[in-house]
Amino acid sequence: MTVAAIAVAALMMQAFPATAGEGCPALSRVEAEQAMRLHSELMVIGLTCQKYYRKPANIYGKYQEFTVENADFLRGAEDGLVASMGAKQFHALRTRIANDASQRAAVMTPMAYCRTNAGFVGEVLALSSEGVRAYVRRLAEGARQQAPGCMALAKRIAVASKK
Hints:
This protein is mostly helical.
């Protein structure tokens, strides 16, 4: 498994709680959550890895540049999530995402976490704004397939198509 694949798997982890009766969420909802996950992961990498990285240099500054360059996209994702779940739940989600990333860094040790994410962070920070949107969409498509309601829907479609 490549470094990028590990980072993608970490971003998609626990994207959706397994709640009975939930439907398959809209791709736009999943995309907004994945955008927040990516942004939070980059923040934790920037803060944790500042002293370990030589390339890209000034990793936290690069994270800040990423935030500015993708502000409209990130703001749209945030606004969409706040509208769908409310501000209190959104902030709880955002905190949980950042805490999960920080916990991974602590469990792995900061140096190992930074070494593991070096390639991933360099690749993501080098993307254009359109590249970031496309990357987040791919993350969302993968995460959405893992949502319990989408898996149940896929099974129903498969059974119906066999009839």
